[in-house]
Design brief:
- Helices cover 21% and strands 30% of the residues.
- By secondary structure, the chain is of the alpha+beta class.
- It is globular.
Length: 152
Amino acid sequence: MDTSPSMIVEYEKNAQAAHLNQKIVGRTGDLLTPVVEESLADLPKFDIVAVSMALHHFENPRLGVQRLASWIKTGGVFVVIDLVVQDHGPHGFGGATGTISTHGFSRTDMQRIFEEAGLRGFDYKVVPKPLKFVHDGKAIEKTVFIARAQRV
């Protein structure tokens, strides 16, 4: 799910290239509106929800996780891959820089966010090798984590 239709087009291209387009689907929508959009009302319950390198762009990460967690089946898992809290050095490239709401999440941040969303069985691992992002010849490295919790 993304607020940008062009990002859904990219997602669907990647799903098709990976031969997953029959099993996964992208939806345009905004979970952070006061009332969840009617177009999202028919979403089924999911076995897994994954947010990869996007939570730090959510205007309200807690609300976004709570809303997404409400669509997870009992026993289902929520996974987040995102930035570890760092200094406020260069974050990204071009237009994306203006969409950042936080400069990463600590273990404590993610545990609190998941618990407030009613999720349990929390785990958080820092990926040992920083990810390198390259765009127009400019490179930055960022340390990321993988966090997970489960609806019980």
